[in-house]
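Input for the complex:
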Amino acid sequence: MPLFHPAIVTSLLVLGLPLLGVVASQAIAANECPCIATGNSCVRDLACEERRRAEGQARERAREEAEPYRQPGRGGLDFDGRVKSLNPTITTPSATPIPSPASRPVQPNLDVRARTPAPRGADQPLALPGSPQSGKGQARNGSPSPAGTAPAASDDRPPAAADGRSPASVPKGSERAAPASPRLRILETGYSHLSEFGKEAPGYGLYSYAILPSDSERAALFLAEVFREIPAIGDTSAQPSQLNIFYVPLRKDKEADFTAMLQTSRGDAAKLGAEYTKSFYDYRMARGLLDHICNPPDPSVLDLCNGDLSRGPYIFAYASAASHIEPVPPPYLFVDLSDVHERAFGEFLAAFQAQVKREDVSDQAKIKTLRLRILNIALTAADWVGPVQKAVADIARSAAGDDKK
Amino acid sequence: MKFGTIFSVCAAAVAVLYGVLFSVTYPRVEITAGVVALCALLGVLTCVAVAGLWKLAVGGKA
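Predicted:
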């Protein structure tokens, strides 16, 4: 068996090296401290870990000092569970009672319009950003306002800057908000259409946007998966403050045509996705959203914003309606699916829906996983295997033909 | 039984196992011809690796 040993070495290399690479990168990502090699084993570098922990705490302290807006109880935008005053658009369940699903009228399957949250009564104020909280009695301009008056929906803006931005760089309308209640857990995601900048329905727990820079096959497949995996917002049963509304930009002049198309497509997600990207998707609005995120960019998306941003698709999730905020202050969840295989979109969308249910929405813990990375590699490899197989078969056939001659 | 026969059967079994694991781990992903071919290839490679290790561990003594 002289040929057997090279075969063993080759197969071990083929199987082992990618596996080793994936495991190593995952381990490095999980812990920045390298382990200390002692003979055949590897021991954790406790001193390094302690040093990292101290550095992290120092960074945290510095950030808290630099960002008075993000301190707990001051209406910050932090998704993190440590800062419970996350979403200024949300009030406590007791403050904003929403009718139970049973008491709401059943919406038809094809109703994809944003559901308007239940109206707040005079004694149940909606705590919009920059607006008086219940009991505070101070309006944005400092003048007293009658307790319980809900501001207009157009005032739905985040309350504060973050990451040490100077007040000058604070987005328009972003002012310090009064203490807000803890953010409610997101229970469901539903898609809807956004036909104009700043026309998001207020009161939802989280606002997400499907951003497609241009019409392409990938964009069509992505939207098909969106329509397949995510129910319409009208079909969800949770109260709006526990819903993640997933907006798909829609051209304003095509709204009527879209309703007609919905009737004809009859739930065929692939057809719907293809038609939507071709005729209905508002690419101008999508690029506008990207401009909002990247002007100026947060360090977490700096590399992405410095790129051409022409591939996508991207998913952007924020605690409040973000289409009219510029710049959009972090934290937010920005998922770049540019390098993701088209057939993996369904899994990534499922991971996104799981991610928004987490306490810390922005950490991407459910999206940047080994499982999804392996899927991406496997699907890319599968695309390569087919042509190679065919090529080998062609070579074998032609060689056999030559032998016969 | 010949080595080739046992090897082919084992490779097919491992390939099927890989395919099942893939479909369980990623239920939303469609199993295409490319995925099947990849599983088959990985099945063969796994069996080659196992056979090689077996030869090294046991065959060397004989």
